[in-house]
Amino acid sequence: MTGRLLPPLLAMALLAGAGLSSNPAAKSVELAADYDWNEDTPAEQLRRDQCLMSDVLRLGGTAMAATAKDGLNQSPERLRELADRNYWSGTPLGAAYQTDKDVADAELERLNALHDSWKIPGLETPGGFKSVADFE
Asked: Where are the domains of the chain?
């Protein structure tokens, strides 16, 4: 007898559940329509600034890493100023980039001078390379 009652009870439960699930979907559509997807919230902007500085900390040179570490220790407002992508030149991060670039250029010049000092007159360079810059 319970075997005959089980299918109708399951069918009623499914129909009752289907009737309830349509109402929350309508509310979620209303909420999505009210949200302005083009405007960044302060939390989103803070996360973007933190991500930029953490990338600079991992991938930048010595001066850029120090600037990024200092920026991550600041208030959200100060971090926003330091991580502003619209104004690169004249910022601490821009100055740190230039410092790291100058250090890298000086090291490259040093390596080129060292390579050139190894040249022996009348002897060809194997592979046709003339300087370290040819490897780039």
From this structure: 42-118
